[in-house]
Amino acid sequence: MARRRTTLLALAGLTAGLVAAGGPAAAETGTPAPPEKVPLAVGTGGAVATVDPDATRVGLEVLAAGGNAADAAVAAAAALGVTEPYSAGVGGGGFFVHYDAETGEVSTIDGRETAPLAMGVDAFLAEDGTPLPLAEAVTSGLSVGTPGTPLTWARALEEFGTLPMSEVLRGGIALADEGFVVDETFRQQTAANEERFRRFPATAELFLPGGQLPEVGSVLSNPDLAGTYRLLAEEGVGPFYAGEVAEDVVATVQDPPEAAGAAEVRPGLLEAVDLALYDAPLREPTRIEYRGLEVYGMAPPSSGGSTVGEALNVLEQFPVGELSDVDALHTYLEASALAFADRNRYVGDPAYTPVPLEDLLSDGFAAERACAVDPGRAAPKPVAAGDPDGEYGPCPAEGAAAGAGGAEGPSTTHLTVADAQGDVVSYTLTIEQTGGSGITVPGRGFLLNNELTDFTFAAADPTVPEPNLPAPGKRPRSSMAPTIVLSDGAPVLALGSPGGATIITTVLQTLVDRVDRDQGLGDAIAAPRASQRNSASADAEPAFLERYGAELGARGHVFTETAEIGAATGIEFLPGGLVLAAAEPVRRGGGSAGVVDPLPGGAAGVPDLAPDLGDQG
């Protein structure tokens, strides 16, 4: 439903003034310091939580000047395209989940990239029929899907916003023009991609200034991206999908401009018709009830809503809130493995493969799947997929093969926004791998995605249907899981995370910690994590292994240590009209949470940051 349009007359001056006050120009002498990251904020008037303080500030400015949650979400996303260009931007896509306080309706926008019409099932196979090496496929034009982010922004503003694109993009334009202060995380991400970036002159020129890694404390601007944003602000998304930007995107994908002496990369299949035909449709969200709460997520082609929802339904068969920490985490890991088995076997783009979504999210199927959870012992992994056939009774016999999970990059970013009226946005956006394809569109200032490597390159078993093989116009399966939780129709919580397939487990574990284990949202986001995705070994952070590894290992769980999992942000509505914004305190360099009107004394003045949610069980 389109919203009443308002005018944000003060935004240009407000944004410019705050950029100058909080950005590079603030330093009078010496090396400028990156903006401070605050992981927890409590107050009123609306809230924003992102991985980046500049993006959070830009979103808060829009809220403070009269914009709503959709307006602020697009503004913050545009800012992330400047400061988090290796994770998201107009060269990628994402999923936008929106709660309308006036109608009580949850809506979603599917901004997932699509395969070119020229892409066939064997697109990622070598001449001998074997799958291409992942690294070769990632850094290529072949991996680039039709970008969905610009049309997602336009659709979000049209359906839910109050401001035109021309006003919402002002903060991102100013940030791209004036630059942002490089922090250690950005330098490390650049260093990890340096070899790839040097293969493409436009990428090296933008992210390796003077041919060197950007120094911490230096200021990195992106005038080409500012120009792209100005074009979108002035003319809408038309030039991106059927105009001058579209022409540049297609030319870059079909003939990636390599540096002199660099090895050639595979050309892509994207054509002008793919951009011209692209749509970012509204889709019905997934919905399940958990402990009396209504949990909404993203439907296929994302597997986030279905897999989080199924795992929660399985967990609801157990009194998780009454269990010890180790018992609760054991049950969480087992439920996650079961849900991933079914995700891998059944979930893909519903326009190309039948997805039994209603059954996957049914209480009967969850009860049947819960039979496979032994409270005292971990099942050998991988576990078999279930049979969501609509007929559920006593515990079933062994199920079907689970299928392959595919390879998803660890990057992506997530933002969460709420406004003073109670509208909420949970928005996950990405270019897939950290650094995407590595290919920057010359003169346009943005990296192209490598989302098509989310397809399963070849079926693991030719006799078992594989729902995620490439096909013309198809959307690859995603794990993005932007989530909004309601209680009696009113929002209580919204969250999401980056992290490839670990997005699902990060959102799931955070919900379990917050709802069942009575942790505050900030503590639940900061808690040590493990991620079981139906593989022989679960990923686990060092702090998780130190605290729980021995006891869970004695039950048969096998872990592989990994430095960090996910980088969540979230918002919770507290009693008394307060809103809490939370982000990571450490992961990915820490996130940034803010509210329009902070509570005097901050979170310390709130007696209970973890009020009971739902029916404890």
TrEMBL record:
<dbReference type="InterPro" id="IPR000101">
    <property type="entry name" value="GGT_peptidase"/>
</dbReference>
<feature type="signal peptide">
    <location>
        <begin position="1"/>
        <end position="21"/>
    </location>
</feature>
<comment type="similarity">
    <text>Belongs to the gamma-glutamyltransferase family.</text>
</comment>
<dbReference type="InterPro" id="IPR051792">
    <property type="entry name" value="GGT_bact"/>
</dbReference>
<dbReference type="GO" id="GO:0006750">
    <property type="term" value="P:glutathione biosynthetic process"/>
</dbReference>
<dbReference type="Pfam" id="PF01019">
    <property type="entry name" value="G_glu_transpept"/>
</dbReference>
<dbReference type="GO" id="GO:0103068">
    <property type="term" value="F:leukotriene C4 gamma-glutamyl transferase activity"/>
</dbReference>
<dbReference type="InterPro" id="IPR006311">
    <property type="entry name" value="TAT_signal"/>
</dbReference>
<comment type="subunit">
    <text>This enzyme consists of two polypeptide chains, which are synthesized in precursor form from a single polypeptide.</text>
</comment>
<dbReference type="InterPro" id="IPR043138">
    <property type="entry name" value="GGT_lsub"/>
</dbReference>
<feature type="region of interest" description="Disordered">
    <location>
        <begin position="376"/>
        <end position="410"/>
    </location>
</feature>
<dbReference type="GO" id="GO:0036374">
    <property type="term" value="F:glutathione hydrolase activity"/>
</dbReference>
<feature type="binding site">
    <location>
        <position position="112"/>
    </location>
    <ligand>
        <name>L-glutamate</name>
    </ligand>
</feature>
<keyword id="KW-0732">Signal</keyword>
<dbReference type="GO" id="GO:0006751">
    <property type="term" value="P:glutathione catabolic process"/>
</dbReference>
<dbReference type="InterPro" id="IPR043137">
    <property type="entry name" value="GGT_ssub_C"/>
</dbReference>
<feature type="binding site">
    <location>
        <begin position="478"/>
        <end position="479"/>
    </location>
    <ligand>
        <name>L-glutamate</name>
    </ligand>
</feature>
<protein>
    <recommendedName>
        <fullName>Glutathione hydrolase proenzyme</fullName>
        <ecNumber>2.3.2.2</ecNumber>
        <ecNumber>3.4.19.13</ecNumber>
    </recommendedName>
</protein>
<feature type="region of interest" description="Disordered">
    <location>
        <begin position="590"/>
        <end position="617"/>
    </location>
</feature>
<feature type="binding site">
    <location>
        <position position="500"/>
    </location>
    <ligand>
        <name>L-glutamate</name>
    </ligand>
</feature>
<keyword id="KW-0378">Hydrolase</keyword>
<feature type="active site" description="Nucleophile">
    <location>
        <position position="412"/>
    </location>
</feature>
<feature type="binding site">
    <location>
        <position position="454"/>
    </location>
    <ligand>
        <name>L-glutamate</name>
    </ligand>
</feature>
<keyword id="KW-0012">Acyltransferase</keyword>
<feature type="compositionally biased region" description="Low complexity">
    <location>
        <begin position="391"/>
        <end position="401"/>
    </location>
</feature>
<keyword id="KW-0317">Glutathione biosynthesis</keyword>
<comment type="pathway">
    <text>Sulfur metabolism; glutathione metabolism.</text>
</comment>
<keyword id="KW-0808">Transferase</keyword>
<keyword id="KW-0865">Zymogen</keyword>
<dbReference type="InterPro" id="IPR029055">
    <property type="entry name" value="Ntn_hydrolases_N"/>
</dbReference>
